[in-house]
Amino acid sequence: MRRLISVVAATVAAAAATLTPALADEAQTKVVSANPVNHTPHALDGTVYAFAQVGTRIFVGGSFTKIKNAGGSTTINQKYLFAFDRSTGKIDTTFRPVLGGAVYALSPGPSGSVFAGGLFSTVNGAANRGLVRLSSTGKRSGTFRIGSGYVRDLITRGNQLYVGGAFSSINGAARSRLARLDATTGAVDAKIKFTFSDPINDGALKVYDMALSPDGAKLVATGSFTKVNGSTRTQVAMFNTGGTLSSWATSRYGPVCNNVSYDSYIRDVDFDPTGKYFVIVTTGGPFGNRTLCDSAARWDATKTGSGQQPQWVNWTGGDTLLSVSVTGVAVYVGGHQRWLDNPLGHDTPGPGAVSRPGIGAINPSTGKALSWNPTRTRGHGVETLDAYGGGLLVGSDTEELGHEYHARLGMFPPG
To answer: Residue 186 has what pLDDT?
Structure first.
């Protein structure tokens, strides 16, 4: 999930001077190395949920409260958000914002700032719920907030900020679970106003995750809804960013997983760098190939109409996938899975299953697991995967990645 930064000149030339856009994870020509870099810092507790790259810094958000430099002995008390230098890995001690709750999403803002979204209700001692823009020194910048609830995902493109979560108002305007703001002024875009309704199992109504096509024309949103603007869209909907609901629809995320009353079971979505397809990963339970529970599935983004079917599906055989990053040469997936290529497994390795504990890579064309297998301690799982600079950032709740100590975050360099 959550996209680090790449520049597409034709799309963003006008905005490049002030804001680098967050796109679908960047195109890469090689699978990343299986040996993580040694210099990334450590989060000593909690979970890392989000990254954003702004200039030479990488921002890290989560539920952690203590951090430490790689090889260092000094513990730094810093809750929920910090930054480090992408080349040296050193924690930036000049960026010390104080947030009153966990950060679930990050995205770059104008003039070196960063947007943070999450479960907090205060920022630097002032009331500021769910969404904030922070300057390069950690001060609040502009007016960005929701009325109640929380923010689960953020995407910036040019001078636009897409916000998804469990809220009904943002910056004083009524918006149900999805909004688009001016990234500089905070003005709410009147074109993006959709009604999400009929939550699964009467659960909390939310947009859980989003993906924006590289050309900025299509937005895919996932969550606990079963209808959008009165039309059936179970857990996933595609929007034309000019302000209309696309006719693209599938019923494949309708069946219940493992007889459990999930309010939603899609966990992440990402476009490929060409915008031709996107990949969705799920939790749910060991139902094998009867449903799309516990799977990664590729979907054709160029089609329209109902009844859409996946181009391929890779099942884990009963383990959750939480995050996905599509780079063109690989579909990286993370969670607490034990296997990939396991459609007949039921918490067991079925015929053809390959061991990929906690992290793996799938061939984008065939849907079969690639040989890349760094391994990690599984825990709850990888909450975010972000491709940039030829490498791959990993955020999780565990301390071993690629057979090395990397507490809750790590980075695989270019292959």
So the answer is: 98
* Predicted confidence (pLDDT) per residue in 61-71, tens digit: 999 999 999 99
Nearest to 65 by CA among 92, 47, 84: 47
Task: Estimate to the nearest angstrom the gap between the alpha carbon of 392 and the chain centroid.
Answer: 13
Question: pLDDT, tens digit, for every residue of 114-130?
Answer: 999 999 999 999 999 99
State how far the alpha carbon of 86 is from the alpha carbons of 10, 214, 389, 394, 410, in Å: 26, 24, 10, 14, 11
Domain-embedded: residue 212: yes
Least confident of 202-206, 271-275, 323-327: 202-206
280's tokens: 């969705």
For residue 294, what is the domain's CATH number?
2.130.10.10
**Does residue 243 belong to any structural domain of this protein?**
yes
Vertex 1: Cα angle to 222 and 184 (nearest 5)? 85
Query: Would 249 be classed as within a structural domain?
Result: yes
Bridge partners (DSSP) listed for residue 84: 58, 91
* 177 vs 25: which has the higher pLDDT: 177
Residue 4 domain-assigned (yes or no): no
pLDDT for position 367: 98
Instruction: From residue 37, give the alpha-carbon distance in Å to each of 32, 300, 327.
Output: 11, 34, 19
CA neighbours closer than 13 Å in the CB half-sphere of residue 109: 28
Model confidence, pTM: 0.94
Say how many domains are in the chain. Answer: 1
